[in-house]
Amino acid sequence: MVEITETVLRDGHQSLIATRMRTRDMLPAAERLDGVGYRSLEVWGGATFDVCLRFLHEDPWERLRTLKRAMPNTPLQMLLRGQNLVGYRHYADDMVRAFVQEAARQGIDIFRVFDALNDPGNMAVALAEVKRAGARAQATICYTQSPVHTLESFVALGHRLAELGADELCVKDMAGFMPPDEGGRLVRALVEEVRLPVVVHMHSASGFSTLTALAVAEAGATAIDSALSPFAGGASQPPTETLVGALQGTARATGLDLPLLSDLAEYFHGVLDHYRPLLNVRALQTDPGILLHQVPGGMFSNLLSQLAEQEATGRLAEVLAEIPRVRADLGYPPLVTPTSQIVGIQAVMNVLAGGRYRQVTKEVRDYVRGLYGTPPGPLDPALKARILAETPGIRGRPADSLEPELTKAIAEVRALVPSADTAEALSYGLFPQVYKSYRAARDRAIDDSVLTTAALGILGALRRPPPAPPPRPAAPASGGDGGPIPWAFAGRSQLQNQRRWLDAGRRRTGH
Predict the structure, then answer these.
(1) Which of 113, 366, 467, 511 reaches 20 to 30 Å from 317, CA-CA?
(2) Quick check: 257 and 36 in contact, CB under 8 A?
(3) CB neighbours (10 Å) of residue 131?
(4) What is each CA distance from 221 to 3, 75, 107, 188, 226, in whole angstroms?
(5) Residue spans of alpha helices (H) in 224-315
(6) What's the average model confidence in pLDDT over 215-239?
(7) CA atoms within 13 A on the CB side of 1
(8) Mean pLDDT of the chain, nearest integer
(9) What's CA 277's distance to the chain center, in Å?
(10) Residues paired with 110 in a beta bridge
(11) Exposed (0-12), middle (13-18) or buried (19+): which is 312, by Cβ within 10 Å?
(12) Contact yes or no for 64/48 (Cβ under 8 A)
């Protein structure tokens, strides 16, 4: 049997609509999702924390509490960037420990912990704290291809993560180019040699994902990530219904109910229609070019934005050719947050400046100095010598050089909000300026749109209320979830919220 981790409430919408799905559009389907029988529901982490505060003016901790109340029977899962937590820099160990404890207390059962460099030192404190909190530690191997990333190196990393206390492993194919045969060999080797359960996370950009999902299932994967079909494909995960159907009647059958999944998919089709102005059509397309440049979908979108700002979109091919060269110079880091941004921005600068490394970003300098951790392979000697001649590098784990941060964050946030608790102190400590803006917006009771200010004129597509929840079947599905769902109440609440937003939008735009 292969189990399924459902990503529609996190990576599915992060990949296709820039993480903009609001909590209120998740809740009408929550009880039905909880009754499906998923291994886990990925609902938090990644970019959701930042986006909740920065764009949606929602409290991410309240989202977690709300979803836990609505889905008490299925383990809730989050993506944690190791020492980066849900941010974009290394945080001190006291922040990491407090964040993990608070997230576990408020509802996270499984922590998927990864590091952009696959550096175990950047995952060690988080993994230890997950264990201390009594949650499940899922340690991650970021899959990539390079001369230094081999089957043997991935298995050695799996052994090291097991030594750090991992309960299970995740193979994270964040760009979506892991071939079926290679994925099967990797999973089989990890299962047989490391002897931990292996979960596989893929994106569909290259078109490989469904084929690879079947290969890793056959190789012994415990679980596979997928997204309900409206939020699947392209930059997102393979479709849940497709995998469930493909495995039916085999020894790896998931045991999930296709009609129930179909009802849920119908609901999320309506949700996607509601957010369609935010949908990047390119994110839904299959792009076999990723097999050459290895650029994940989110990174690709950022490159297009950066080039558009410089009126240089015609130079995209040059940038895509430069990215592998910069990546090789930096020791072949996997392209995932934040290394994807580090490599991508430097590649853009190399192309637009008319020469390689005429300008070097602060992030590349910090990377070469060791502030992000240990690179997978050797750095370009000339680049390394040039940067270290200006500023010496560091030795050891980057977080060892950081002063404790939590006490200071608590004092500063309570100067703004005297009643602030640990969760709010963590939000402030992770994103101080974003938190201040969030508090100001919340205190003004602004119900901002999922759209950017520039897109507020696209009201026509949002005049209808969000979709009605999926109908409840006459007889409970296998493993049914009990009492009636207050669909009508949820629908009225959504409609009222939508009308309030439309009124606010008309006042701001004059429409």
Answers:
(1) 366
(2) yes
(3) 17
(4) 9, 19, 26, 8, 14
(5) 240-247, 258-274, 281-284, 290-293, 297-309
(6) 97
(7) 8
(8) 87
(9) 21
(10) 77, 136
(11) middle
(12) no
pTM of the shown model: 0.87
- Between CA 54 and CA 20 the distance in angstroms is 11
CB distance 45 to 78 below 8 Å: yes
Instruction: Give CA–CA dist 136/166, Å, rounded.
Output: 8
Instruction: Tell me the two tokens of residue 376.
Output: 């997978």
Mean pLDDT confidence for 294-313: 80
Query: What are the φ/ψ torsions at residue 76 (nearest 5 degrees)?
Result: -95, 140
- φ, ψ of residue 175 to 5 degrees: the values are -100, -20
Cα–Cα distances (Å) from 339 to 9, 147, 333, 468, in that order, read 25, 18, 7, 40
Conformational region of residue 196, where left means phi above 0, alpha means psi within -120 to 50, and beta covers everything else:
beta
Burial of 463 (0-12, 13-18, 19+ CB in 10 A): exposed
Rounded CA separation 382/313 (Å): 30
Contact by Cβ (8 Å): 408, 426: no
Q: Which residue reads 């999702």 in tokens? A: 33
- Of how many residues is the chain composed? 511
Percent of the chain with pLDDT over 70: 86
Q: How far apart are CA 210 and CA 203, in angstroms?
A: 9
